[in-house]
Design a protein that fits this description.
The protein has an eight-stranded mixed β-sheet with strand order 12-11-13-1-14-15-8-16, sandwiched between helices. The protein has a two-stranded antiparallel ribbon with strand order 2-3. It is α/β, with parallel strands linked by helices and 581 residues long. The chain has 18 helices and 16 strands.
């Protein structure tokens, strides 16, 4: 079986965590094969630079022989450092050196099973040494604001397929649609008319939206011009592209006023805007990647989206924002082998639940975003539950191994827990299809659903200790004018609507910080896990994710949205179906 050496090379980053030990070690002879930097700090930096070079060599697709040679050189340097480390660490560094040797052997033999054993061994030993040295690495103790411990229940509500400008593009104080005197100043090229179309108010409840794949995101963004939305939508209009229908009233109207550049305001979204008035609106919340619902939901619970050739072997996982479920190849096994946040919650004894609509807990083979009927053994099940791409946790190796699948429960369990004041520390609440706002489903039904969930928390004994985060998983093909920041090759995706509700929320704040779903993970990790990240070199379970997204420079701090010194705010219970304005 041929395997890529990329995962094996990535693990050598762990060795960088060992370098501080050399810096604090006692003087000793230096192997003459190694250059002698001016001081120990420079030596440490030299080692880390070599390690990063080896990783880059593998990641960039350099030939295996060159990459393997660089790893061998780094391994040799570490074998010398074990004699320079302080006495209390020499045994650990020696074990690390042995694990590195096993890793090299696994690569030489192209043994994927041995590689999967050697990689976490190296990572765990390096993390232990890092803790002893108290330097480097990403393990940390979170510095929480005074009073943050008042939050004991965090609830995430994730809706579907809307952009920020589509919902809040005219909200006062937000970074909305560019306008002058109430008229949009932007005009998006429209292949259907040969001209361009400006964003317009859309009072209708239902829209069709546009393509929302990774390719569509790239086209919509169009190198920062943010003008590809109508062109992408136009590609999907097979009916209206037929000359027999092109001049019909419906097609002509659609061509002149594409709904992908339509926007809603307080008239259609009175409850959402009311939440923004009373709590915190986040106007720079970006989807975690440029993919569709499945990769964004994967990122929501794990900080990564990948596909695993052998899900039980994390070293076989590679970044992917396309269709990542491998049910066809592994019909009786989980699909996702990397680490998700519930692994750490379970490890730290933090309670969690993931609530879904009936008919959707079990794995549904082969479900895609367009194939949403998702009840095993039942064709055309109605009403539709929560489609599998929105419900990834049952397919994680960690969730199955920890026997936590039982924590994925139906909506009635959420409402019961809220009434009884027994909400878990962390909850995710996912809609059923009809309440999701995923086009062509309507806005009103989704807003009613979200309001029912928020009201349940507000009426609960748990309200005084709760924080509710509401967001939409991707942009759904709808226009947004803000170019997403680039944090890696896969994200961020386009802006989505998002707001926070809590008795400690700063009233009426528009948070302009850059956020993604990584901010949600960071909030949970800081609040409950002492700042432990989903970091393969410190969390005790290695996977080949290319970065720790919670530590990205662009990720804002959700804690700044709270004022823990203020008197707890009373509930703002709203009607689920407000009268139309």
């Amino acid at each position: 079986m041929r395997i890529s050496t990329r995962a094996g090379f990535a693990v050598v980053v762990a060795i960088a965590l060992v370098a501080p030990a050399a810096c604090t070690g006692s003087p000793g002879g230096v192997d003459p094969r190694i250059d002698k930097p001016a001081d120990d700090s420079k030596r440490c930096l030299s080692v880390m630079a070599d390690i990063r070079g080896a990783v880059a060599s593998a990641a960039e697709g350099s030939d295996e022989e060159t990459a393997r040679a660089r790893l061998a050189a780094v391994t040799e340097r570490v074998s010398v450092y074990k004699f320079q480390a302080r006495a209390s660490l020499q045994a650990e560094v020696s074990e690390l050196n042995d694990s590195l040797s096993r890793l090299v052997d696994a690569l030489d033999n192209k043994d994927v099973v041995a590689l999967n054993e050697a990689v976490p061994s190296v990572a765990n030993e390096a993390a232990l040494i890092n803790q002893v040295c108290a330097a480097g690495g990403s393990a940390r103790t979170a510095q929480l604001p005074a009073g943050a411990s008042k939050i004991k229940h965090v609830i995430f509500i994730m809706q579907e397929n809307r952009s920020f400008d589509h919902y809040f593009g005219t909200y006062p104080g937000a970074d909305g649609i560019p306008m002058k005197d109430g008229v949009p100043t932007v005009c998006i090229p429209n292949p259907a008319t040969g001209g361009c179309s400006r964003p317009h108010h859309d009072a209708s409840d239902e829209q069709k939206g546009g393509p929302h794949t990774a390719d569509a995101a790239t086209a919509d963004i169009n190198n920062g011009k943010m003008d590809g939305f109508i062109a992408e939508w136009h590609k999907t209009r097979n009916y209206c592209l037929d000359p027999l229908h092109a001049n019909g009233a419906t097609c002509v109207s659609e061509s002149s006023h594409p709904d992908v550049v339509g926007y809603h305001d307080r008239r259609e979204l009175s409850n959402y805007w009311e939440y923004a008035d009373n709590f915190v609106l986040q106007d720079h919340m970006f989807a975690p990647n440029r993919g569709w619902s499945q990769p964004t939901h994967l990122a929501m619970v794990s900080g990564w989206s990948a596909v695993c050739n052998v899900p039980t072997l994390p070293t076989t996982c590679r970044p992917s924002i396309t269709f990542n479920d491998v049910d066809a190849a592994w019909p009786n096994a989980p699909s996702y082998g990397w680490t998700d946040i519930t692994y750490l919650l379970h490890k730290y004894d933090v309670s969690w639940r993931y609530y879904v609509a009936p008919g959707s807990v079990n794995d549904c083979e082969g479900t895609t975003d367009e194939q949403i009927h998702c009840t095993p053994g039942v064709d055309n099940f109605d009403p539709i539950g929560t489609p599998e791409p929105w419900n990834p946790l049952p397919d994680f190796v960690t969730v199955q191994n920890n026997r936590q699948v039982k924590n994925i429960q139906f909506h009635d369990q959420f409402f019961r827990a809220a009434r009884q004041g027994r909400l878990p520390s962390v909850s995710w609440v996912l809609p059923g299809w009809y309440d999701s706002e995923h086009p062509p489903e309507g806005v009103a039904a989704g807003q009613a659903w979200v309001t029912s969930v928020v009201n349940a928390v507000m009426k609960s004994p748990n309200w005084k200790n709760s924080a509710i985060f509401v967001a939409w998983d991707d942009w759904g093909g709808f226009y947004d004018h803000v170019e997403p920041p680039s944090v890696d090759g896969y994200g961020y995706g386009l802006r989505v609507p998002a707001f926070m509700i809590s008795p400690y929320a700063k009233q009426g704040l528009v948070d302009h910080q850059v956020h993604s779903f990584d901010s949600y993970l960071k909030f949970v990790e800081d609040l409950y896990l002492g700042g432990q990240r989903l970091d393969p070199y410190t969390d005790g379970r290695w996977d080949p994710r290319p970065s720790v997204r919670e530590n990205a420079d662009d990720v804002g701090d959700l804690m700044t949205e709270f004022d823990f010194n203020q008197q707890p705010r009373p509930p703002v219970v709203l009607p689920e179906n407000p009268p139309s304005n």
